[in-house]
Amino acid sequence: MFERHHARLISPPAAGDRRSVPFDAASLPGLLYSAATSSSSAAGPAVTALHAAGLKLGALPSSLPASNALISAYSNTGHLPSALRAFYLLPSPSTASYTTVLAALSRHGRPHEALSLFSASASAVAPDAELLSCLVSSCRRASALLPARAAHAYGVKNVAVLVFYASAGPALVALYARCGKVSAARRVFSFMDGEDVVSWNAMIGGFASAGRDREAWNCFREMRVRGVRGNGRTAVAVLGACDLDSGRQVHGNMLRIHDGGSKTILWNALMSMYSRIGCVSDAEQVFLEIERKDVVSWNVMIGAFAKNGYGARALELLDMMMQCGMQPDSVTFTAVLMACCHCGLVDEGLQLFKRFVSVVGLIPTMEQCACIVDLLARAGRFLEAMEFIRQMPIRPNAVVWGALLSASRMHHNVEFARIAFEQLVQVEPENAGNFVTMSNIYAKAGMVEDAKRVRMMIDRVELAKPSGQSCVEAL
C-alpha cells in the first residue's frame, strides 16, 4: 500500500500541471540518485517509492542505467538485500552493474561475497578501470592478495597504465604494504601522482596496518619533505604507527589546524594512539575535549580503560554513555566485557552480558562469548563456563576453547584442560601451541606418560611451534 501510494505521488504529471516534475524512464536514475544522497530520514521510503514507480512504467529492470541507479540507491540508504535483489533481477548485467553491486557489498562489510560474485561471473563481463578499482578495493578489505595480483595483471594489460593506477592504485598500494610487499607497493606508487595526498595516505595506512611503523613514519616524513599537504586521513593513518614522541608531534600539528569541535575521527584516532602506548590519562584528556563525541569516541575511551586495567572506570564510562543518550553497539559490548575479564569483575560481566543480550537486543559474537568463558574459567567456575559453552547460540571455535585451556593451565585443572584440548585438536589441528600447552599441563600434574603422548602427537603430524623472537633497537 505504501509503495502504491508513493508511486501515484511521483507518477507522470497530469496534463497542464506545470508545477510537477516530468517523470519517465530517462529521469528515473537522476531521481534515484537525489533520493539516495538526501540526508532526510525519508530517503529510504523515497527510493522504495521510486522503485515501485519504475516497475509501473516498465523501466525496471529493463533499463540498465535505472537499475544500476536503483542498486546504488538501496545500498546508500542501508538496504543491501534490496540492492542485491535488484541486481539478480537484471537479465544481462553490464560492467557498470557489476561495479555497482561490488561497491555495495564492499561498502557493507562483505568484501568476500563481492569477490565470490565476481569470480562466479568473470566470464560474463569485461572489467574496465572502474570495475577493477572496486575489485581491488574488495581485495584490500578482505586482505586477499592473490585476487588483487590477478586484477593488477589484467589491469596493466587491458587498461591504459595511468588510468588504471589512478583508479586502482591507492587500494593496491595499501594492500601490498599491509601484506609486507614493500617493493611492490613502492613500484605501484611510482606510477601514481606523487602530488596526490590519496596516494600517500594509502602507503602510510598500508604500512601502519601491517605494523611496519618505521616505514609508515618515513613515508609520512617524505610526503612532508616533498611539500604534499596532508589531510585528516593522513593524520588518522600515521597515528596508527606513532610512538609517544611522534604521536605528540602529530597531536600538536592537529591542534594548530583543527579544533576540538571538528573532525571527530581525528580525535578518536589520537585517543586510540595514546591508549595503544598506555597513556590513558592523555587519551582521557583528548576525550574530554571532544565537543561532538560519537559512539566511536566512547568505544575508544572504554577500550582504553579496559586494555590498561581500569575495569571500574570502563564500567562507569559505559553508564555515562547511556545517560547521555548514546546507544552502545557491539564494539562497546566487547570492550566492557574485556574490562571485566582483565579486572576479574565476574558478576559484573555476567550481568552486563545478560543486559546487552536481553535488553539492548545485541546478538553476541564469538569474541564476546569467549570473554564470558574466560571470565568464568579464570575465576575457577569451570562448571558454569562449560554450561555457558553448551548454551551458546553459535558453535564454539578455537578462541572459546583456547580461553578454557588457558584458564585450566592457570588453575592446574587437568579435567577441563583435557576437554578443551580435545576440541582444539578438532577445530585447529595444525596449532602446535595447543599440544605444547596440554603437554605442560600434564607434566605439571605429574602425569609424565600423558605428557609424552601429547608430545609424540606433535612429531607424528610434523607440527612445529613457532619460536619466539625478540628485537633490540640499537641507539
Automatic annotation (TrEMBL):
GO biological process, one term: RNA modification
Record keywords: Repeat, Transit peptide
SUPFAM superfamilies, alphabetized: TPR-like
Highest taxon in the source lineage: Eukaryota
Each PPR repeat, start to end: 196-230, 263-293, 294-328, 329-364
GO function term, MF aspect, one: RNA binding
NCBIfam families (alphabetical): PPR
Name used for this protein in its record: Pentatricopeptide repeat-containing protein
